[in-house]
Amino acid sequence: MVNVNTVYQTVLQILNKEQRGYITPAEFNNLAQQVQLEIFESYFPDGNQLNRQNQNNTQNDTQYFNIFKNQEEKISPFVKDLPLTYDTDQDGWSYSQNTPPAGEMLFQVYWVGEILSTYNSSSSQSSSYSSSASTSGGNYITQLVSKSEYNKIIRSKLTAPTEKYPLAYTDSGVLVPGFDPYFKIFPLPTSVEMNCIVSPTNPVWFYRLGIQGQYIANSSGSVNFTLHNSEQTNIITRILKYAGVIINDPTIIDVASQEVAQVEANEKS
User: Fold this and answer.
1) Which residues have C-beta within 8 Å of that of residue 258, sequence separation ≥ 6?
2) What is the DSSP letter of 229?
3) Which residue, among 131, 169, 178, has the nearest Cα to 149 in the 3D structure?
4) Which SS3 state, helix, strand or coil, does residue 33 take?
5) What span, in angstroms and rounded, lies between the C-alpha atoms of 28 and 17?
6) Which of 265, 37, 232 is nearest to 257 (CA)?
7) Which of 106-110, 209-213, 247-251 is least confident?
8) Range of the domain at 19
9) I want to staple 161 with a disulfide (CB 3.0 to 4.6 A). Which of 105, 167, 169, 192 is the partner?
């Protein structure tokens, strides 16, 4: 994780070096959230590009210089296995981003990966869309399809889902970042776990006022960047680029933009 106070103080020092200008804590927090989201979202197209290089054996496989593995490491803190809750009224499974299960941290789901359905051999499940009881038991990866595909598949005895090959569709619409996942699964499992990528927590530089009205960092209310430590320079330069717009300084914008472009080029080369 990147320390938010380190980033804030560095940004201020660079801006104030030649009395170029100043950004308030509120402005910094807004820029920090935007920059973190930009970097986070860049991992996916960049990772896809690097994966193609990796498959073509054009990647360096040295332990600390394999950029595909480095990119994968940056994503790993955001990969979570989250339990879903069964809603008897809706006859489906969900993970609410507003009311997570008791004892669980609140996450915002960015993208859904695999769904794992668990069946108990000792218990019989009933559902409006499940006509058979659980008999074999076990944990099985659930195929996620559209509702129209689901309706076609269950009509055929050859493709009808079973406990070993469960089937799911979502009533949530298109699976896009920020949605509340909601699934109907056939046959009805005993429990469900969703592997997914969650959004980074918004960074916050929290402060208290000093005797002279100055801003003093307050670590108890601050939230660090949830990005990898290697992103610190990238974060600072991107914030400076936006800060240049706020203080209307083209020099800051140009220098920071060039640095950001160089960092991106180095990561993809």
Assistant:
1) none
2) G
3) 169
4) helix
5) 17
6) 265
7) 247-251
8) 4-73+204-268
9) 167
Q: Which residues contact 266 (CB under 8 A, 6 or more apart)?
A: none
194 shares its domain with 209: no
Mark whether 124 and 178 lie in a shared domain.
Answer: yes
- Strands 138-145 and 167-170 turn out to be parallel
What is the rounded distance in angstroms from the CA atom of residue 94 to the CA atom of residue 100? 10
**pLDDT (average), residues 156-161:** 84
Q: Give the number of domains in the chain.
A: 2
* Residue 31 CA from chain centroid, whole number: 19
3-state secondary structure of 89: coil
Residue 211, C-beta contacts closer than 8 angstroms, at least 6 positions apart: none
pLDDT digits (tens, 9 = 90+) for 173-185: 545 555 667 889 9
- Tokens read off for 124: 């019989």
Distance CA 3, CA 224 (A): 5
